Structures are given as structure tokens and as C-alpha cells.
Amino acid sequence: MMDPEHKAMNACSVLEHARDCYKRGVWTDAYRSLSSVNRAAPLSGEDLELLAMSAYLSGHDDYMKTLARAHRLYADDGESSCAIRCAFWLGLLLLLRGERGRAAGWFARARRLLAPEARDGVGHGYVLLQVVLQHLCDRDWQIAYATAARVADIGDRFREPDLTACARHFQGRIRMNQGHLSEGLALLDEVMIAVTGGELSPLITGLIYFSVIESCRQVYALDRVREWTVALTRWCRHWSDMVAFTDICKVYRMKIMHLCGAWSDVIEEARACVECTQTTTNRTIAEAFYHQAEAHRLRGEFQAAEEAYRRASQSGLDPQPGLALLRVSQGRLDAASAAIRRSLIPTSDRLQRTRFLPAYVEIMLAEEKIAEAREATRELEETALCFDTEALNAIAASARGTVDLADGDPQSALDSLYYAWRVWKKFGAPYMAARVRVLIALACGALGDSDGHELELAAARTAFDELGAVPDLARINSFSSRTPPAQRNALTPRELQVLCLVAGGKTNKAIAAELVLSEKTIDRHVSNIFVKLGVPSRSAATAFAYEHRLIRPPCSADPADHGVMIGRYIKYSGRSASDPQQSRRRVDIIGRD
Which of 1, 23, 339, 436 is the most exposed place for a label (fewest CB within 10 A)? Predict the structure, then answer.
């Protein structure tokens, strides 16, 4: 047996190894080693805190009780600042979990530990952060900002970078809530220098990544959302043992992939999130289902979208506005209108309403309720004026252009639509840009600019084809189909069968297995289909098949409604483009033939 002296030496060796693992970010090994030493002999408060953080970062659920032990040990040893810090983190982590009662209890403990003579130290800074959180909840922006400034000053004076970063990040969020966007973003940018430079603890680094990205997303500062999401992804991948913040990273990666038109990647990332249930939170699973549904909807895979929206709802996430837009695509305008109206009722928050208003505008136009669509557009413009980010301005401009076009004013529409197109192009959002280009094409056509009309439609068609946006491609092709009916009917029964499976999203290999044919034979059939239909790709062939009713669109009340999606296109009716009154004629919504 090992004598007590050797046991102590061994414990010291393991402890040093654990501390080294923590510094190197090998948190699973740090957790195991510290747990091993803790079972043999009591750890110090500092090492208990390392054990708690290792547990949290590596995905073990005993971090709360371990941090509570560290708090008690610090308090018993008279180390009030450290005890207050532990109590604050316990309160904050509980608050993030929605356990407000227990969080308030820990915050109260922290305040009770603050001695009168320590009213200007690090412990006081953490107590004041609780005050900032309370004023943020009460929307007392001025008091919250002044208190955060005091905390930042304490952090600077005592060289406590975590405290300083928390305070300045709160200042940035407060300024953004007050409508001072430039000042708020500047403060957040300053904090992110410390975050990306590795100056903060792993816990604070992850929490600030989440808070800053979410704050930027809420005001549609998409350039920063993308930049900080890329940085967060890099940070999470750097630490192989990172579990705590990988869920957040996955959610924001899906949002960026969706914006960039990488819908297949969104579907795969979402599927991976859902399958990895042991380390994925319910919120992440719900978000994964929603983004998966959106990708399926835009690709015209309506049955898959329907199922994913349902799973998102079962996981606790409101599936709007995506589900309402799916209902429009299915020709169920009454259901779409009821859903989008219900979604707008619970909140008066401008930015939250902005999530639903673009869909509301489009659904109102589909119902030919131009006055209601215009009123919602005014609200979008007021919000954009308040926060003044390019993406918000583009959303408002796109809505304004669509309403003006529907109301017979293509010249005014063009001014708004060109602005929106430039912004979406700048942000690398190909679907949004292509959708706007279709509206620009229609406005050009209404003003007699046939060249502009054809060029814009061609550019949009190419973008939709590359994205696999089958419903939009089908609709845009319906504007001017040049393929003779006889050519369409030249498909053999087998080719029609293959075309139906292609439209269902199956690969050539999967089709070969289903039809019990060789993959080479399917390759030949697909090639013949492309030639006969005069299309360059699978998505174009699928769009053609739906447009000309060679196959029936899934989940659609009528194939003519298949292409009615978010940002639906509008067509001019009545007079020809050469009509002198063309600039003020009314228009109908596509899908209402």
C-alpha cells in the first residue's frame, strides 16, 4: 500500500496535471483529474472553481453543486470577493436556464457577503452587475447604463478583464436598446477585441459571443452576425473538449448558411443536431427543425417542410412565420392570414414584430388587401428609421417596392427595389437578391423596358436554378415558356417516372435502387429529360414539371399555387406594356390566375 506521504505526492502531481489541462483547454481531462483528487481529499476553493468550470465547459451536469461548494468554502475562509463571484455566476447561469427564483436567491447571497469596507472592490463590481441585470429587465436604460459604467471602471482599476468585458458589453446592448446603434455597436466591437484575443475566461468568452451575436441579429447587423459567428465557430473548433457553447454555434451557423443560400448544408447541419440528442439542448433541436423546414420550403419540398415545422412546434418553438408562408404556397390563404395575424398580437416590441411583418405584407397582398400591406410597410419603415441598419432598411425597401408595384406605381417601386437588391447582393444573400430582381423585372416591364425585364428575369432565373429554389423557378419560367407542348409530351412513361423521383429530391443512385435499374441507365434517362425539356439542371427540370403539370406538386391544393412563396412575385393584368396609363394600373398576385 502507498504510504500517506506518497499519496500526497501523487495527489499533488494529479492536481498540477489537472490545472495544466484546464489552461490548455483539455477540460474533460481536467474534470476527471480534479474529480479524482476531490474524492481523495478536499479541494481548495480555487480548485473547486476550476472543477466547476471544467464540468460546465465539457458538458457535465454537476457544475452547479460544485460551484456552490466553492462559494461556501470561499465564504468560510473570508475570501468574500471570490465567494461573491461564484454566487454571481450561479445566479447568472440559473437565470439563463429560466430558474428566476433560485437565481434571485444566489444574487441575494452575493449582496449579503459584501462588507461595508469592500464597497469599491471586485466583489462590489459583481454585485453591481446584478443591479445592471435588474434595470435591464425593467428597461430602465439610463440607470442600467450608468451602473454598468461604474462596473467597467472597477474592472479596469482592479485589472479584472471578465468584469470589464461584461460591463462594457451591457453598455453596448443598452445603447442599442435606446436606439443609439452606432455607439452600441462600437462598444460591442471593443469587447469583441478582448473576446477574440483570448483575454477572457472561457465561460465569459462563450457567454459574450452568444449575447453579442444575438444582439446584432436582433437589429439586423448582419455583417457583424456573420463575422462573429465565423469567429465563434473557429473558437469552438479550437477546443476539442468544448461542449457548452457548441449548440449556440450550430444555431448561428445555420442562420448564416440559410442567408447564403446553402440550404443543403442547413438540412445536414440540422439533421446532425437532431441526431446528437445527448449533447444538444431542446432549444437547439427546435431551432434545427425550424431552419430545416425553411430550407425544405424554399426548395419546394413541402411535405418535408410540413413535418419539420411540426417537430419545431413540438420542441417548443413557434413555427411562424415560415409555416404561414408554407400555407400560402399550398393555396391556404385563410390559414396563412389567421396564423400571421395571431403571431403579431402578443408583442409590441418593434424588433420582434419585424420578424413577422414582411410575411404579413406578402400575405395581405396575396389577399389583395393593399391598404393593410401598406400600413405594415410603414411600421417596417419606422423601425428601420429607428435602428438604421442596412438589412433593416433593405427589408423595409423591399416591402415598399412590392406594395407600390401591387398598387400600380412601378417607378416608385424601382427606387426601393434597386436599393434592396444592392444591400442583399452586398451581404451575399443570393435568394433575397434574386427575389427582388424578379420584382425589378416586372417593374421594368410595366414601364416598357423590355430589355431590363428580360435581363433581370434571366439573372433571377440563374440564381434560383443554382439555389435549387424550385417553386420560384417554376413561377419565373411561367412568365414566358418557350418550350413547345409537343416537346414536353415527348417524354416516355419511364422518363416521366424518373422525373417524378427527381422532383422528390432523390439522387440518381437512389432512383436506380427504387426502380431496380442500373445507375448508368438512370443517368441516361436524366440526360434525355434535360435535352427534351430544354433545361440545364435537376431543379430546372423539377420546376418545369410543376409549371406544366407534368407531375403534381406535393401538399398543394392546386399546382398553380405551387410557386407562391415568401416574396411572391406579382404580375400585371389588363393593359399591355405600351399602354400610356401603365404607370398607375393595379396588379394581381401570382397564383391568383
Answer: 1
Instruction: Assess whether the previous peptide bond of 321 is cis (omega < 30° from 0).
Output: yes
**pTM summary value:** 0.79
Report which secondary-structure segment, H or E, holds 406: helix 390-406
- The set of cell numbers assigned to 197 is 484575443
DSSP, collapsed to helix, strand or coil, labels residue 589 as strand
HEC assignment per residue over 443-487: HHHHCCCHHHHHHHHHHHHHHHHHHCCHHHHHHHHCCCCCCCHHH
CB atoms within 10 A of CB 46: 14
551 DSSP assignment: S
Residue 571, phi then psi, degrees to nearest 5 = -125, 150
- The residue among 308, 265, 303 whose CA lies nearest residue 290 is 308
pLDDT at 479: 66
pLDDT digits (tens, 9 = 90+) for 536-589: 788 888 887 877 767 655 433 333 333 333 334 433 322 333 333 333 333 433
Backbone angles phi, psi at 587, to 5 degrees: -130, 160
CATH number listed for the domain at residues 382-483+534-589: 1.25.40
Domain residue limits, the chain: 245-301, 382-483+534-589
Closest CA to 489 of 549, 538, 559: 549
Q: What angle do CA 158, 164, 167 make, to 5 degrees?
A: 135
What's the DSSP call for residue 557? S
CA distance 272 to 21: 29
Q: How many alpha carbons lie under 13 Å from residue 137 in its C-beta half-sphere? A: 8
As a whole number of angstroms, the distance between CA 427 and CA 287 comes to: 23
